[in-house]
Specification:
Chains A, B: This is TetR family transcriptional regulator. Two copies of one chain form a homodimer. Chain A has two domains: 49 residues, Arc Repressor Mutant, subunit A (Orthogonal Bundle), CATH 1.10.10; 140 residues, Orthogonal Bundle (Tetracycline Repressor, domain 2). By secondary structure, chain A is mainly α. The longest helix of chain A is centred in the first third of the chain and has 25 residues. Chains A and B meet through helix 1, helix 6, helix 7, helix 8 and helix 9 of A and helix 1, helix 6, helix 7, helix 8 and helix 9 of B. The first copy, chain A, binds a DNA duplex through helix 1 and helix 3.
Chain lengths: 221, 221
DNA sequence: TGAAGACTTGACCAATCGGTCAAGATGAGA
DNA sequence: TCTCATCTTGACCGATTGGTCAAGTCTTCA
């Protein structure tokens, strides 16, 4: 079970290990996000990864071990956009950029969004620590940025965390509720026209809601 | 298996049947919303309902039968608020009332919200028909209402479905992501102060985003 | 080339799950 | 009180699932 090489070489992974672990994680992301933790089976994950169940269990000691690896693999990239919110930039373009990044992630990695939503909806048993420490620090920090913008009179008054929640909710909604959106509109974020329409709607609503002029890209008049 | 009484008395349920079915549905709602369809077991549902597994299967023929009953039981009440959107009323108070209703439902019935989210995230296999017919008709109808408000110059221009999506996303977020919100803020919608703070933030952001003055309740100046 | 690892697999196991069945307990109407 | 339909349960079954194990195959490197 993943013994280290002799002479204590610490955590170096062979090429085969690296490839197989990433194939497993990719396959597991698909299964976990579609069927939830209980609904996903290591049989189907291993099949989707193109290997036997036994082989998957050679790389990960258990199902929950795979699950944790998938979550960890996703968390960083998932929370990254918020880190880029710059106190020095002007609110309109900073917030618009943040919303656009989140929308792009919903379009490009909807499974990641759904996996995250699934985990949180079940009480976040696996990532509670990350939420209470890393994410909380990050949100506190960025809340202060928003607070400063408010005090400087640059944006309308609002309790910062709720602005953050609103941005998360609206952007992730297009990934998490994709099937509902598709049932209602016949299309989804993978359609460039629909993507732009959604992005414009969310950006304009939130930025105008904050009393900002929204720096629309190709506005001519 | 729920045979009708002799002489074709149609669908009358005995008091015992009615009570037990509702207890089962209530217990099943809790389990399904917490653990998803696969994660919930009829053993635990029946235990939560205070009866044996066999007895549960006397009232419902299968696990999926229970699940369908729970969804049906919830769908009407869940989609009701949107129906109340009145074309004759003024946009600000109509939309504010709608948002408040949705927020109250997120506070009072978060399990219903999570169950619905779970079902949709897994591709809405059970309620696809309802979404594509009833809900689509409803959304189309209410989109026209919003469109008329726009054409009358009462609210800012926006593609109506995205306004509806935004309201759904923001309000349901407080139920679906409750554990994340609790990890970040230390409280949730069951706290009256937090509820009002959230409601104010969502209302003001969306209404201001539409160019509306928001009819705040206890504004004195 | 030839070990000594690393890698891969099918056979197998125990636990859990959804669901059946026969038999007993309870209730309501004559 | 008697009777019959309704209600309730524990014992049981087959299928699936997470996980183990021994044995075989492939890499790597001296």
């Amino acid at each position: 079970m993943n013994k280290r090489r002799k002479s204590e070489k610490p955590v170096r992974l062979s090429r085969i290990q690296e490839m197989n672990r990433s194939r497993i994680i990719e396959a597991a992301l698909g299964e976990f996000s579609r069927f939830g933790y209980s609904g996903a089976t290591i049989d189907k994950i291993s099949a989707a990864a193109g290997m036997s169940k036994s082989n998957l269990l050679y790389y990960f000691s258990s199902k929950s071990d795979v699950y944790e690896a998938v979550l960890e693999h996703i968390l960083d990239v998932w929370l990254a956009p918020l880190r880029t919110l710059d106190p020095e930039g002007d609110p309109a373009s900073e917030l618009a950029a943040y919303i656009r990044q989140k929308m792009r992630m919903s379009a490009e990695r909807p499974e990641a969004s759904r996996l995250f939503a699934n985990e949180v909806m079940q009480g976040a048993p696996q990532i509670r620590d990350v939420l209470e420490k890393d994410l909380k620090n990050l949100v506190t920090e960025k809340s202060k940025v928003i607070e400063q913008w408010i005090e400087a009179g640059k944006i309308r008054k609002i309790v910062p965390v709720h602005l953050i929640f609103t941005i998360w909710a609206t952007t992730q909604h297009y990934a998490d509720f994709d099937s509902q959106i598709r049932a209602l509109t016949g299309t989804g974020l993978e359609d460039p026209a629909f993507f732009e329409e959604a992005e414009n709607a969310v950006c304009s609503l939130i930025l105008n809601g904050l009393g900002l002029e929204w720096p629309r890209k190709q506005t001519t008049s």
